[in-house]
Amino acid sequence: MPTPEESTLEAEERHHSYVSSVIPWYVRGIWLLFWVFVIYYGITYFLPAIQSELLNAP
Q: Which pLDDT tens digit goes with each residue over 20-56?
């Protein structure tokens, strides 16, 4: 193994290969369900509460 002073880019690259991971389909499904719930909650509960607070503001 070369010392840090002797190492080259090619020698360093040989031990550092990164492979990206593919997100599984069920994780994408969980995210989709999460965002569907966020939109449902926002329309059902958050927007009416904000409207009533803004209309009743002093």
A: 788 999 999 999 999 999 999 999 998 888 888 877 7
In terms of pTM, does the model score above 0.70? no
Tokens 């593919």 correspond to: 22
Residue 1 lies in a domain: no
Q: Which domain holds residue 37?
A: 23-58
Torsion of CA 20, 26, 31, 36, to 10 degrees: 150
Whether residue 4 lies inside any domain: the answer is no
The DSSP annotation for 20-41 comes to PPPPPHHHHHHHHHHHHHHHHH
